[in-house]
Amino acid sequence: MFKFNTHIFTFLVTLLYAFLISFQRSVIGDSIVTIFLIASYIYVFFLEKKWIRKTHVVKLYRRIFAFIVLIYLALFLGLWLANAPNDSIWMPDSIRTHVPVSKQFSQVIQGHLNLEETDLGRQGVSTHILTGTMFTLFGINIYSTLMALFIFKALTLIPIFLLAKELFDTKTAYISSLLYIFAPTLMFYSISFYKEMAVQFYMAWVYYSLYKLFYSSKSILFSVILLCSLMLLSRERFYLVFLFIPSIVLLTINMSGKIKYWILLFSLSILTILYSSNEYLQQSPRWMVNRIVYLRTLYMSVTNQSFSFNYDIPYPIAVLKATFTPYFTLNKFSLFYDFSYLLIWGSFINQIIIFTAIYCFFKIYKQSIIHIANVLPLIIFLLLLGYICPWNDRLRDSFYPIISIYSAYILINYRSYDVCINNLKCGIKNILFLRYRKHN
Q: With bands split at pLDDT 50, 70 and 90, how would you rate the model's confidence at 385?
């Protein structure tokens, strides 16, 4: 007798998606294929949500890892069967920004270029090093970038699972990992050649090591991991490092005794600031404020007319927009195609995940100071993002590791939505029954 297997089902659906999306060039065709993929992922998610009961942690992580391996294997195979060109996966800004630097590092490995002659010292160092290595081994193609993104995303699941297990329980750890795997907007950035997977990898380790630094006896070990994660994160997206300083200070203030923690964290903060801001040390003490104004001006100058309204809306609305973007709008069908439809149709799922994460925080923030410390960097970031570029969901998704954890907890433990669904079913049955009686 055939037994339904969620892993095989996920593999086949993703394979079909990767194959068909390479040929579709219409709103209806691309939409149908994308909606089918998202609906299938939702179906698998709810099956897995019911499946998890009393299962060993190691088995759960193997199950999670199997999902991510099969999804990328299906993407590889589907794109190969469809003979998909590079520009079907690589976005124009990726081709302009990330591909050339990765090619440069590949030439460094082959001895055709000196490291000093490359642009590797700028942002996205880890992404370009790993992708450049893949270019050297497997050629300059979409499969090399997919392999690099797979490595980052698969490794990100480790700190997400461990942190969720420490903060809440094993069930939350499993569900948060599934959310991170199946979220459609993240799936887009897992396919396209951006540095988001590297950023989220370091962000996840920053969050986990920050928690362990204050809540475990291995303070030296996790202080080193935290420092390394922050330093590497600064080479991907430097300003994110500064957002964790208030959380470090907050957690330090709430500790009792042991002056070594004060010295340790003070040194860590100073080293991180100096490292991530070395190119600005000669500037005015107001360089951060000047940088924020500069970034807003920069984004205003490079965006087209369709984005200009973002800078005319009231600031509170801009922050709200930055929190829940992307939104479903009809004009996006003329702007995007192929894999970008994951951003359009996946916007609803993304908004549910973010809303449940926010709701979870307001439900449990009084339980421990660690919850405030976890969300504080995100709050500061959203306030800045609303001013600089409220339409840029890619930057906001840097915090998806922590967002998925809090969303998973509320999806597991909050039962009101089950009651609402049951009430809706009963209401539909009652309406149908009344109509049937009137008809008779």
A: confident
CB 71 within 8 A of CB 7: no
For the chain, the maximum distance between any two Cα atoms, rounded to a whole number of angstroms, is 86
pLDDT tens-digit series, residues 179-217: 999 999 899 988 888 889 999 999 999 999 989 887 877
Q: What's the whole-model pTM score?
A: 0.86
Dihedral sign from CA coordinates of 293, 295, 298, 300? negative
> SS3 of 327, please?
coil
- The tokens of 408 are what? 């998973």
Name the CA radius of gyration of the chain, rounded: 23
Start-end of H helices in 325-415: 332-335, 341-345, 347-364, 369-388, 393-396, 400-413
Q: Tell whether the model's pLDDT for residue 13 goes beyond 50.
A: yes
What 3 state SS string does 249-272 have? HHHHHCCCCCHHHHHHHHHHHHHH
CB 202 within 8 A of CB 400: no
Crossing angle of helices 219-234 and 259-276, in 10° steps, is 20
| Side-chain half-sphere exposure of 107, counting CA atoms within 13 A | 15
Query: How many angstroms separate the CA atoms of 99 and 144, rounded?
Result: 11
62, burial (CB in 10 Å: exposed 0-12, middle 13-18, buried 19+): exposed
Tokens 């973007």 correspond to what residue?
Answer: 325
Distances, alpha carbon 316 to alpha carbons 25, 319, 322, 385, in Å: 38, 5, 10, 11
* 303, pLDDT greater than 90: no
Which is nearest to 350 in space by CA: 184, 220, 212, 200?
A: 184
Contact 351, 324 (CB under 8 A): yes
- Nearest C-alpha neighbor of 176 from the set 151, 189, 157: 157
Section 16-38 average pLDDT: 86
